[in-house]
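== Folding the chain ==

***
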Amino acid sequence: MTRAIIFDTETTGKVDPILIEAAWLQLDNLNPFSTSASFNQRYNPNKKIELAALATHHILDEELIGCPSSTSFNLPDNTEYLIGHNIDYDWNVIGQPNIKRICTLALARMVWPELDAHNQSALLYFVDRQNARDKLKNAHSALADVENCSFILGKIIQKLNVTSLDELWKVSEKARIPSHMTFGKHKGVAIADIPKDYKTWLLNQDNVDSYLRKALER
């Protein structure tokens, strides 16, 4: 059976982030949308949590002393799809396993391009304004973030009218290829309009995002 999980992590911070909490929901069906098994576990990173991260997720270093080591985390067996908001961040944190990734951030930007923000909090106010405040009370707890991502994912699937995980993954892959630059001196400029010499320079850099590379090579 194909297994897809909606996934989120909390980490030590921006500098070489290490896992301190992981959570997931198993996605059982797209239409009607349904999830089942859940997982939530904290881990000891053996590294001090940055203050900025602490101010976001409120997980104290001393609360993690007796937890399993972050190196002990593994995805469930037979997982084929990893789904999340800006999923590459979480994927990097757990060691970049060889798995298909579906990014709800990229999908939301494609489905609702008119919105001025596409973070999970903003999207909840857009798709469920009356209940968003209650749903966001525990935001940045990994399990709460997974549950909120799941709700947003259900709305995206309704909008796209996709019927299979493979179809959803293909749409996500397409959505992740940027049409405009998001950084640098040409930020906001359509990639098709960027000077050729700048494209060539970017393509020669080792750390260019793979989806930006696809856009530049078109």
Notes: Residues 142-160 form the longest helix (19 residues). The chain has a mean pLDDT of 93.
